[in-house]
Amino acid sequence: MAEPIKTVIGFDFGTHWTGVAIGQTLTRQASPLNALKSKDWKGIERLLQQWQPQILIVGLPLSMRGEHQEMSKRAARFGRQLEGRFGIKAVLVDERLTTREAYQLAIENRRKKSKTEIDSLAAALITESWLRDFDQDDYY
C-alpha cells in the first residue's frame, strides 16, 4: 500500500513566476514558499527533494463562468509536466479569485507584498481549498 498523503505542494502557475506553497493533510493548512521563475525545473526538483510531497496541486485558471481559457491549457500542461518529470500525482484545482483574495489579505494585513509574494499566497489558498475537500480514501 502507498504511503499516506501527508505533505502536498501547491503551485499558482504563471507565465513569468509560479507561486509555491507547502501544505499538510493533518492541519489542512498551507503556507507560502518563495515563488520560482516559471518552469524552473531545477528549483522545483530541489523543493520536491526537500519536502517529499505525495501530491502536487496546480491551480487551474478558469473564467468566471467556469470555462477553460488559454492559461487553463498552460496550467494543465504544467501539471502534466510535473507528473511526468517527477512521478508525483498532480491534481488540478479551480483557482478562480485566489489572486484577488491574496491581494485582499495583503491589504487587510496592511502589508504591501510583492507580486511573487502574492503568487505564493494564492498558491497557499489554492492548496488549502484542495485540503478542505481532501479525503485519503479517494487516493487509494
Explain the layout of strands and helices:
Elements: E1 7-12, E2 17-24, E3 29-37, H1 41-51, E4 55-60, H2 70-86, E5 89-94, H3 98-108, H4 115-133
Parallel strand pairs: 1-4, 4-5
Antiparallel strand pairs: 1-2, 2-3
Helix pairs in contact: 3-4
Briefly note the CATH topology name. Nucleotidyltransferase, domain 5
- CATH homologous superfamily (4th level) name: YqgF/RNase H-like domain
Q: Portion of residues in helices?
A: 40-55%
How many strands appear in the DSSP assignment?
A: 5
Portion in strands: 25-35%
What is the end-to-end distance? 8 Å
The averaged pLDDT comes out at 85
Strand count, sense and barrel status of the largest sheet are:
5 strands, mixed
Number of helices: 4
Could you say how many structural domains there are in total?
1
Stretches where pLDDT is under 50 for at least 5 consecutive residues are none
Order the strands across the largest sheet as they lie in space.
3-2-1-4-5
Shape: globular
> Under the CATH scheme, which class?
Alpha Beta
Specify Rg, calculated over alpha carbons: 14 Å
Q: What's the architecture in CATH terms?
A: 2-Layer Sandwich
Helices and strands, in order, run as: EEEHEHEHH
Helix/strand class = alpha/beta
Query: What would you call the quaternary organization?
Result: single chain
